[in-house]
Design goal:
The chain is about 50% helix and about 10% strand. With about 350 residues, it is an alpha/beta fold. The protein has a single domain, classed as TIM Barrel, CATH 3.20.20. Helix 12 links the parallel strand 5 and strand 6. It binds coproporphyrinogen I (1CP). One of its GO terms (molecular function) is uroporphyrinogen decarboxylase activity. Catalyzes the decarboxylation of four acetate groups of uroporphyrinogen-III to yield coproporphyrinogen-III.
Length: about 350
């Protein structure tokens, strides 16, 4: 097992934070989406003891789970152990996670369902999350690891709220957008403000950068993508910049395809996280010089490990060398990934030479 990051009192040694603020580092800083998860034996040990919501809402557990991949691999970023669906739960929508099925919520269908949501209770219900962040910030203060907060972006969160869980085509969300744009717009408006407030609270508690996951952005046609993905993200970023001008915002418009450049330009996110299908060379010319790129190694290469993964990782880092690049995957770590493959990837990126 690798030692955790060496102590360092100087926040300038937080390579990930500096990169998110626009600097180029070589080798690039690295963390992985879903780095705390079922591929880790120490994660499974805690998973056997408590259900998902308990793990998210018990600060001791959330802290321990967040730090597991840091202790094992010395990642440059620690992402809070939580979920994008904590916000709907905090707004008053019931939520539980079913084995083999994922999140389950009572779907929002009628005006009364929307009216029952109450942003006034979010701060109180997310108090354990802030407590976990406060403790993590203290633990990581003297290390090289940057603490990341996050939320789902309004569109993706609305998908789960309206469908009542995951979906193949998100037809109920599309129906609502088409048939009740007034009601849908009210929900997105509420989510914009609640998300900005929640992320602002995460920053006040000690998160050094925040990420907005828009995992289903890619299902929308261009005009809906502009209205329900780009515009809400632009507004959340603007609200956060008013309150925390120096805190970087990462945006992940997954499967955004040719819309990804427009997303980066018009939301103003400091770093755009690219999914597996995106060629970074196609996006770079569309970014401003200090805008960063995060990603985007194929999680399937990590799953399989060995020379194909190492070669692709080296090529990806080399392609983005000289600009702000955070090494990451194009989506989350698969639960079937052998732990040795993650160690091999971390070593491959760390040992990139001049
Ligand atoms: O313990 C378990 O078995 C539950 C698995 C799990 C985990 C580890 C879920 C259920 N959520 C999480 C944690 C989580 N989720 C984190 C923090 C940990 C880390 O990254 O290391 C983060 C950032 C998320 C974000 C998240 N949750 C997203 C956005 C990113 C993505 O994967 O696209 C989404 C869409 C969710 C919803 C969700 N939560 C869990 C599941 C199985 C799902 C997907 C449901 C579906 O649509 O199929």
């Amino acid at each position: 097992m690798k030692a955790p990051s060496p102590p360092c009192a100087d926040p300038a040694n937080k390579k990930l934070l500096a990169t998110l603020q626009g600097k180029a580092h070589w080798p690039p800083p690295l963390w992985l989406m879903r780095q705390a998860g079922r591929y880790l034996p120490e994660f499974k040990a805690i998973r056997a003891k408590a259900d998902f919501m308990t793990r998210c809402l018990t600060p001791d557990m959330a802290v321990e789970l967040t730090l597991q991949p840091i202790k094992r691999y010395g990642m440059d970023g620690a992402i809070l152990f939580s979920d994008i669906l904590i916000l709907p739960w905090a707004l008053g929508q019931d939520l539980h996670f079913e084995e083999g099925r994922g999140p389950v919520l009572p779907p929002l269908r009628h005006e009364e369902d929307f009216r029952a949501l109450d942003p006034a209770r979010v701060a109180e219900r997310t108090a354990p999350v802030r407590e976990a962040i406060t403790r993590l910030a203290r633990e990581l203060a003297t290390t090289t690891t940057t603490l990341l907060g996050f939320a789902g972006a309004p569109f993706t969160v609305s998908c789960y709220m309206i469908e009542g869980g995951g979906s193949r085509d998100f037809a109920a969300v599309r129906r609502m957008m088409i048939k009740r744009p007034d009601l849908y717009a009210q929900l997105i408006e509420m989510l914009i403000n609640a998300t900005a407030d929640m992320l602002s609270e995460q920053i006040n508690a000690g998160a050094q950068a925040v990420m907005l996951f828009d995992s289903w952005a890619g299902i929308l046609p261009p005009n809906d993508f502009r209205r329900w993905v780009i515009e809400p993200t632009r507004r959340i970023r603007a609200l956060l910049k008013q309150r925390h001008p120096t805190v970087p915002v990462i945006g992940f418009p997954r499967l955004g395809g040719v819309m990804t450049g427009e997303y980066a330009q018009n939301t103003g996110v400091d770093t755009v996280s690219l999914d597996t299908s995106t060629d970074p060379l196609k996006i770079l010319p569309l970014l401003s010089p200090h805008q960063g790129v995060q990603g985007n190694l194929d999680p399937q290469l990590l799953l399989n490990g060995g020379a194909p993964m190492v070669k692709a990782a080296q090529a990806l880092a080399e392609t983005l060398r000289g600009r702000s690049h955070v090494f990451n995957l194009g989506h989350g770590v698969s639960q079937f990934t052998p732990v040795e493959h993650v160690a091999e990837l971390v070593e491959a990126v760390r040992s990139l030479s001049a």
